[in-house]
Amino acid sequence: MSFRFPALLYILIFIANPSVFAQAVVNPVPVKREFRGVWVATVANIDWPSRQGLPSHVQQQELLRIFDEHQQSGINAIMLQVRPAADALYAKSHEPWSKFLTGRQGVAPFPFYDPLEFAINEAHKRGMELHAWFNPYRASTTLNPADISSEHITRKRPEWFFNYEGKKLFNPGIPEVRKYIVDVILNVVRNYDIDGVHFDDYFYPYPAQRQVIQDAREYNLYGKGFDNIADWRRNNVDLLIKELSDSIHAAKRHVKFGISPFGIWRNKSQDPEGSESTGLSGYSALYGDARKWVREGWIDYINPQIYFPFHYRAAPYEKLVDWWSNNAFGKHVYIGQAAYRATERREGWLDWRQIPNQIRYLRENPRVQGSVFFSSKSLTNNLAGVQDSLRNNFYRYPALQPQMLWLDDVPPLSPLNLTTAVVNGSVILNWQAPLQARDGETAYGYVIYRFEAGKEVNLQNPEGILKILYENKLTSYTDFTAKKGVKYHYAITAIDRLKNESIPSNIGVATAN
Fold it and tell me: Do 321 and 362 contact (CB within 8 A), yes or no?
């Protein structure tokens, strides 16, 4: 349920610290291209569905409300968790249905529907990308046999797993495990119209007291040529990332592959190439060499979880943003933003300007292309007014996702023959689809621009974006928001799947009556 802070609370905060609002009301310079993502977590029903076993229509209604809220906040990418524990929130799967969806692993939603297909369609209707978020190695969140379907992979191939802190995890050192995970993900890439494949920070498990990773036997079998088990473990993860990268892009060139690692790769005390920080290292603790994945070009974007405030001693936000941007190797950097921490009564978070200031900081860095917020509920609950800040300031105007020219650098051709007509006070736009560009593509969708007469028709100004459409068959649009008696200039551009944009159509002119 969305939560709004009462007016009296705003007044009290203003009296206590007027500079909070003095800064908040300053509208930032709008940007036309920015990745604006949010994680929608399904594990333990963090974000969706609100509880297990809901009827399908209730699940759908909840997801539509979530998407509508994020669309109103200017979000343009949904990271939907579709495989939290070697299970599935999608129908075309060899793994069992997730218990987080239906209440019992292996039981399909009733009445039957395909949640991922539904989510993709609804996200695209709202001009948002849908990135399928997989947990590659977590196989169960429990060791209770009663919670595990007889069809689950841990039952079929128990030798592939080790237990750690009350969970079952795939053993990444087994070659058959890597092949299995690649096959699971490629199945989704081939069968669903997703925009991206997304991993979070869970590779080998986070260290826990009195817990040991039980993979000595596999190291003895497969670790020849490695001086130590740590390097072997990192190589196991590297092999999966490299094979996935090649396989995803071979299957569908436009599908992006991105990873959201822990916010620290290595500390400078551990490696001269590391960051000015002293916290846990994803390289050492999780055996994830995220810098290598970007350097080698295996992933299209890195989305480090910098869930820390400015000037935090162990992991200062500003130092880590700078470090990741300096180690992007030409690929995209989207900063993981800790919306869930926004109201914590801890160092740095007492100041509700923390996340707005973090957005301002990353926007000043040309090598950072956006943000992803954890998690959906923290935004829709408007913690510390973050959602209000997005709607009223930072994401007030729509934005296209940044281009990935290494995947596609050919823009579409222009839409043809834009015409306007005024019917019942609304302006109806019609145009013709563009001809094929030199890569054989026409249009994946369109951007509709509107400017009042007398104002510059500037397509680099996102204030002029009226609508972003992910629909190549649609060649008409009705502007119901045109003001009576105001003369408008309209232009249409075509976009391809990777958001390359054409030059505009001819200008259409109309005055609503």
Answer: yes
Smallest CA-to-CA distance from 188 within 298, 89, 259, 112 is with: 89
Domains annotated on the chain, with CATH = 7-394 (3.20.20.80), 416-511 (2.60.40.10)
Above pLDDT 90, what percent of the chain?
A: 93
Separation between Cα atoms, residue 355 and residue 47, nearest integer Å: 20
Short-list 55, 56, 122, 49, CA closest to 81? 49
Who contacts 163 (Cβ-Cβ below 8 Å, separation ≥6)?
Answer: 143, 169, 214
Band (pLDDT 50/70/90 cuts) for residue 29 is confident
Give the E-state strand segments of 9-74 in sequence order: 35-40
Q: Are 81 and 39 in contact (CB under 8 A)?
A: yes
**Residue 183: pLDDT over 70:** yes
The span from the CA of 483 to the CA of 480, in Å, is 9
Any residues with CB less than 8 A from the CB of 35 and at least 6 apart, and which?
Answer: 76, 77, 301, 332, 334, 369, 370, 371, 372, 401, 402
Distance CA 447, CA 493 (A): 5
Alpha-carbon gap, residue 285 to 138, rounded angstroms: 16
Q: DSSP letters of 393-412?
A: IITSS--BPPP-TTT---PP
β-partners of residue 134 are 83, 199
**Is the bond leading into 375 cis (omega within 30 degrees of zero)?**
yes
CA 145 to chain centre: 33
Which pair of structure tokens corresponds to residue 86?
């070697």
37 in Cβ contact with 77 (< 8 Å): yes
DSSP 180: H
The 3 state secondary structure assigned to 242-279 is HHHHHHHHHHCCCCEEEECCECCCCECCCCCCCECCCC
The contacts of residue 54 (CB under 8 Å, 6+ apart) are 62
Q: What span, in angstroms and rounded, lies between the C-alpha atoms of 171 and 221?
A: 13
317-326 and 354-363 are packed helices; what angle lies between their axes, rounded to 10 degrees?
30
| Cα separation, 335 vs 357, whole angstroms | 13
| Burial group, residue 44, by CB count within 10 angstroms (0-12, 13-18, 19+) | exposed
N-terminal to C-terminal alpha carbon distance within the chain: 39
Q: 90-125 pLDDT, tens per residue? A: 999 999 999 999 999 999 999 999 999 999 999 999
Mean pLDDT of the chain: 94
Residue 28 pLDDT: 65
Answer whether 323's CB lies under 8 Å from 275's CB. yes
Helix (H) or strand (E) holding 161: strand 161-164
d(CA 48, CA 329): 35
pLDDT tens across 297-353, in order?
A: 999 999 999 999 999 999 999 999 999 999 999 999 999 999 999 999 999 999 999
What's the CA dihedral at 464, 362, 360, 448 to 10 degrees? Answer: 10
